[in-house]
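Lab notes, practical 5.
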Amino acid sequence: MQPYIVGLTGGIGSGKTAASQWFEQQGIIVVDADIVARQMVQAGQPALAKIRATFGAWVLLDNGELNRAALREYIFSHADAKKQLEAITHPLIRAEIETQLQRANSPYVILVSPLLFETQQNRLTQRNLLIDTPEELQLQRASQRDQQAVSQIQSIIAAQMPRHQKQALADDIVLNDADLAHLYAQLQPLHTHYLQLARLKPLS
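Output from the prediction step:
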């Protein structure tokens, strides 16, 4: 029997990680697309060799690992490079995500992905939850957490799907504009609801 899959998404600084950690504490398995993406480009992985062959040796650090900062900067200023990178990594990431989802043995499983809708990973899910945050708060939280310039964070937000489009695509929306207690209080009834949906609508 296939697991009941809930997609969890949100922009940078929205609180996706805090939400996914809460679900984990309730005994729900979380498959994190960002973690899978990092695993796919570790030293020795086929994807990293393809990235080097496509872009050149400059994408690697002296220790053989991916120079994420240099590649990120290059991609932001070269649209074609972004498409080339995605063509290499996305099929591998999706295959590994599907494998991990199928292995999940909790009542339902969370697929957390900042690009859930952009990469059409929502085709893998039965329901989608958006952790929504006003842009001013995103900027504040992300700059404090990552020590990045506000302009950098603004460019990341601009590159992601607009907030109103995510709101239109989501089945459930949690507005994370206060403290963690406020966030958790909104997640609790959703957890109960997802447990019911997983019981009532098993997938063959």
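Observations recorded by the TA: The two ends are 5 Å apart (CA to CA). The chain has two domains: 1-28+107-204, 34-105.
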